[in-house]
Amino acid sequence: MDTVSYTLSQITAELGGEWRGSDVSISAVKPLADASAAHISFLANPKYKADVTESAAGAVIVSPKTADEFAGRNLIVAQDPYLYFAKVARLFSPVEKASGLIHPTAVIEESATVPEGCEIGAHAYIGADTVLGRGCRILAGAVVEHNCKLGDEVVIHPNAVVYHGCTLGHRVEIHSGAVIGADGFGLAFAGDSWFKIPQTGGVTLGDDVEIGSNSNIDRGAMSDTVVGNGTKIDNQVQIGHNCKIGSHTVIAAKTGISGSVTVGSYCIIGGGVGTVGHIEIADKTTIGGGSSITHSIKESGQHIAGPYPMQTHKEWARNAVHIRHLSEMNQRIKQLEKALPLLQSAENNKE
What whole-number distance in Å separates Cα of residue 280 and Cα of residue 244? Predict the structure, then answer.
């Protein structure tokens, strides 16, 4: 692959921001400690200012508040250095486009619609009456079953599976091993056994949704499980049937969301979170890793933390201080219990 380089003036012309110093040429993004003269790095946290001074980076992305402290260095000044770094990284690692090639071992049912320019990898399968948008990439061993509808530039990575009747918006990305649209866990007890409830809904993913490897989103029992535009789901996440996940929410690895849960937009859900079913989580809720969500969160903007019981982050932090002193508190209580009869006896003698 040919090495791509950009000058600082070219980067700011593309992404905005202000460059200072020499208009050097940059070929990659690197951490401050690893960067050399051909690299650009960034300072997002002011406590690492010393690392900028010691770094050999050809240029550094900094905020307006810290820029004047690095006079003489080549800089790009941006309001949010971390976001700007992400955009620069994308310049050097653009989204791969469909090759337009269909591998001879791929199986495409006759009634499927695959526009010219899509890429279909080795041993991939496209089911009957499935419709692909422009520029889709269905990679090696991936499966898109019948009656699915995919938007433009969807990427299904190797060995991911999209079950029948699912709808994916534009620029959706499904990573390897993920399963979209498997049956929801719906069962009715028949006295001596469990009777499986047919899961006749599907899954609808909005535009720009990304699903991590080995994650599962179950189809709805009667209506679709829905994930809103721009939501990003990490690896090994389970979304139960009939859930409604809002737009631009992020969900970290090993989280399990039970059936019929409604999660708002712009939520941040940490790793290993678990929820009960049939609850609501308001917009802009932040849930710390390992938390157990046992009831609805109705107020927007709450920060919830702690495995059990469910509480606000402020309450959890206050209680966590005391937990570290439990042994000491236990000893003091024992001492008070031993002293209590003597105190009571002395009090009775006074009477």
Answer: 9
Instruction: List, for residues 35-54, the tens digit of each pLDDT value.
Output: 999 999 999 998 999 999 99
Of the listed 241, 303, 322, 325, which one is catalytic? 241
- 8 A C-beta contact, residue 240 and residue 258: yes
Helix 313-323 × helix 326-350 angle, to 10°: 70
Can 241 be counted among the known catalytic residues?
Answer: yes
- The pTM of the full predicted model, rounded to 2 decimals, is 0.86
